[in-house]
Structures are given as C-alpha cells and as structure tokens.
Amino acid sequence: MTEQTDQTAVTAAKLGAEAPQFTITRVFDAPRETVWRAWTDPDEAPFWMHPHGLTTPREQVELDVRPGGRYRYTMVTADGTAYPTAGTYLEVTEPSRLVFTWGSPDDADERMPVITVDLAEHGDAGRQTLQTFHLVGIAGAPGDDNVHDGWTEAFEELDAHLEGMSDGETEPR
C-alpha cells in the first residue's frame, strides 16, 4: 500500500512552522517488514505500544492502517488507570513510512501532534531496521518523564518484543 499526502504542508497548516518537536532514532535487530508489522498489526501492538509498567490489552487496540483510517488503543496502569489514545493515519507507505495524528480520542485531529515513523533497511543484508520517529506538536527531551521518555520506553518494549518474536514469544508483557 502506497499513498501519500504532502506531509510538510499538513504539519505546517495544523501546527505552525515553529511547533515544538523532537526525534528519536533507534536501530532494531529485525527486518524492516517485521518492524512495520509491529506498527500496523493490532495483534502485535499490545506487546509494546506502552511505556514500562503499563499494558495495552488486545481488546483495546483497533488499527485501520490506510490514509484517513483511524486507530485507537488504551494503555492501562497496574492500578487500572486508563490512557486512551487515538488518531488518524495521514500517510501510509508500506513498509517504510507512517504518518499519523496522535492524542486523546476526544481531540480534534487538526490540533493533535503529528508523528512520522520512517523505517529504513540497515546493516548487513537488511537484517536490521533504522527507525526515525519524529513528533511535531510537543516538545520532548530525554529525562522529561513525559512524552519523550514514554516513547523511548515503548521502543525498549518493542526491542524486547522483536527479540521475543525470534524466541517464539506469544503473550504480551
């Protein structure tokens, strides 16, 4: 599936040229198609789509991965506090790029931050994936105990899940 929008224009129109933003890059020891599946398969998301100490129940994940498609998932703490999250896919270029809005289910898409995930083959024979995660609309930095650190922890969960996939793991943490 390859459909695109002019993401620069979309982001600028929605959030303004001087919007706060941050980028997280990470190399995963898995082929790009495997990392793509982790982002786009609702059966894979519960394994990693949350920071440490939270869970994402499978029944709380819906992904309609196509431009204009909506997604939602709910992260849950040990005491039962729920953090529902939702947005709209703006660009889907399999297996290399996802662009989507990100926020609470009640937020208007035009006010939501926009996330771009680029996946590139990396390393010898494409056995690794370089992921570039860019969020426009929220400032973030390592150690913020907020959005940046939450996504960093989610990517640590993803890394562990990808390792578990090669070991036959079948249950989310």
Q: Characterize the biggest β-sheet.
A: 8 strands, antiparallel
Question: Which residues sit in consecutive blocks of at least 5 with pLDDT less than 50?
Answer: 1-5
* Strand percent estimate: 25-35%
Rough outline? globular
Number of strands: 8
Distance from N terminus to C terminus (CA atoms, Å) equals 30 Å
Which class best fits the helix and strand makeup?
A: alpha+beta
Roughly what percent helix? 10-25%
Radius of gyration: 15 Å
> What is the H-and-E element order?
EHEHEEEEEEH
Number of helices: 3
The overall average pLDDT, rounded, is 89
What features would you describe in this structure?
The chain is of the alpha+beta class and 173 residues long. The protein is built from three helices and eight strands. Strands 1, 2, 3, 4, 5, 6, 7 and 8 form an eight-stranded antiparallel beta sheet that branches. The N terminus is likely disordered.
